[in-house]
Amino acid sequence: MLYSSSGEPQGLIFNIQEYTIHDGPGIRTELFFKGCPLSCIWCSNPEGIVASAQLGVYPDKCLSLEKCGYCLKGCPLQGDSPIKHDQDGVLSAVNMVQACKDCLKCADLCPSRAIKLWGKRYTVPELMKIILSYRNFYLKSGGGVTLSCGEVMLQWEFASLLLKECQKNSIHTCVESALHCPPEHMEAVYENTDLVITDIKHMDSGKHKQLTGVGNELILKNIRRTVELNKPLVIRTPVVADHNNDEENIRAIGAFLRDELGGRILQYQLLPYRKLGTEKYKTLGVPYPMGDFVPPERQVWEANIRELVDILRTEFGLPAVAGSNYKLPI
Ligand code: SF4
Ligand code: SF4
Questions:
Q1: Ligand 1 centre and the CA of 11: distance in Å?
Q2: pLDDT, tens digit (0-9, with 9 covering 90-100), for 72-111
Q3: Closest atom of ligand 1 to CA, residue 101
Q4: Which pLDDT band, with edges at 50, 70 and 90, does 142 fall under?
Q5: Rounded to whole angstroms, how far apart are CA atoms 195 and 176?
Q6: Distance from Cα 83 to the centre of ligand 1, integer Å
Q7: Domain 54-118 carries which CATH code?
């Protein structure tokens, strides 16, 4: 776990979104934890994958060296600075791997946010102050707090402390996790979790590995355990054309949910892949793994998802829905 200089536990969070309505019931505050053991080829939050703070580069916001230049002036590496500008003096890159001290001063100093910091440390009281400021919205809407991707379980000790504090304040807690983690970390987090959201991306472990970088055995084991523990559970599949949207895969997931979990899930959501977050890859200097992918027309993927939902509802008797807009039965 991370600690502040005064010894207080800290979490590394890369985004805090207020008023979200898709990840759990009601109006929620969603906290995105930095660091993820998966590397899904369609990931729309690439700034959440690396488990340390990172800098995103937005050249179109740069005021130029001539008019500003605070980033270079403040960089302790001075002449060897990994901050690069083009021939017009406009920011082009910050190579954090090469010779950067990770002091993150350049992001602090940049007046136009052309260098953006992804990943900030917070203590539990700091986050609770933000969370509690929206308490009335949670009360009126039946909402609460959702801890979300990267991967909450990588920071399981901090997540447990935060969730405990939320529950102490009667705030509903939801954890969205890939569940690729040691079961004991998951169970520690569950002690203060009211709702769990997780994914099954592919039932074939080899294909799961091709798509996400890891096999699915540990994830499926943790899903079985989640049901054994009677945790309210929502399962999702991000449906990606030509990758996991075939009937064979969706039927295999349906069989797992019905036969191995006894259908004990609140909802099974099929989410269409929409090629989001591609710009963020550019700002991190990372190639987008699905750069060449052309998603099908809206009518085509809508029809595909409707068909799959029908199969899951009629043949498998599962509470399947298209998207994450349907009210949860809680
Ligand atoms: S993080 Fe620090 S060392 Fe790295 S480029 Fe920015 S100011 Fe320089
Ligand atoms: S501090 Fe920001 S705006 Fe100024 S030169 Fe550097 S990147 Fe550009």
A1: 22
A2: 999 999 888 999 999 999 999 988 776 788 888 999 999 9
A3: 3
A4: very high
A5: 9
A6: 7
A7: 3.30.70.20
